[in-house]
Amino acid sequence: xxxxxxxxxxQGACAAALLANCTQTLAQVKSSAKTPAWQLGLGEDPERxxxxxxxxxxxxxxMQAWSPHFLTAWLNSFDHKTGDLSFWRTWHQQQRLxxxxxxxxxxxxxxxxxxxxxxxxxxxxxRQYLADxxxxxxxxxxxxxxxxxxxWTLATEFSYWRLPADTYxxxxxxxxxxxxxxxxxxxxxxxxxLPQAWVALSWGGWIVTFDDPKQRxxxxxxxPFGSTxxxxxxxxxxxxxxxxxxxxxxxxxxxxxxNPGQIxxxxxxxxxxxxxxxxxxxxxxxxxxHPHGGRADIVTHDFLLMMQPEWLQAVRRLGLDKFAxxxxx
Length: 329
What we know:
Strand content: 15-25%
CATH topology: TIM Barrel
Distance between the termini: 18 Å
Oligomer: single chain
Structural class: alpha/beta
CATH class: Alpha Beta
């Protein structure tokens, strides 16, 4: 499998961004006035992204080409007891959040828990999780007097956290019930500070690509979450497939569905539960440390497919209008 340099990746990202920008403009011209505009997000660390925009011409070009509406930051837990708030506190103290909002950006907050050893997820069902979210929401409220949009995508990839993974059964039921109760409390905590915030659970997008009704795995895991999903502001899901559409996937021993196909399937499934959908983090395996390596061709290939009018119309009709690109090189 080919591994691309960071510059090669950025070149591919810029090409895809320019294509997306042109096609999006045409799509918006043709769409009705009632159709909400696409909201595009970029990055995983706003401070790093904006600094590199100033220091690296390739990043600046990618930033200008994508022209994001919001920046993305993460709340991670590695010890399963607390979230890493260190950089959030620094951003607050140094007024970085205020600067970003003043520049016109919205903000996405993704919450995640270290899943290198399973089972995991204790942080996301704890009171500490709620306290950490309240602290961040307070910082955001103070920094955002003009109420620019904020998107909170919670517990991303949570279906993988218990054993058996991607399954709702007697062994996992109590955890997922506790998680559902806590994310509803999390929404209340966030909305007390930010009444206009968009708050959603964030699924691993792979969950829709298989089904085992007898074991309540895959798509059959989703219905027990229906009531909770309906009480949130929308549904989010990630897309991180490391293969081109139709490329042989050795793990599955078959052609891969690809990110565009998975996103469309997510929209088809999750639109049955909510009318507002978001791709919480799109990252087609570009980190150098990822076992599949970085591949600029996937980004370009994916956006060539996702900018086709048929694909755009299908996902928009199903409620997708927010898309966050996790890495940019």
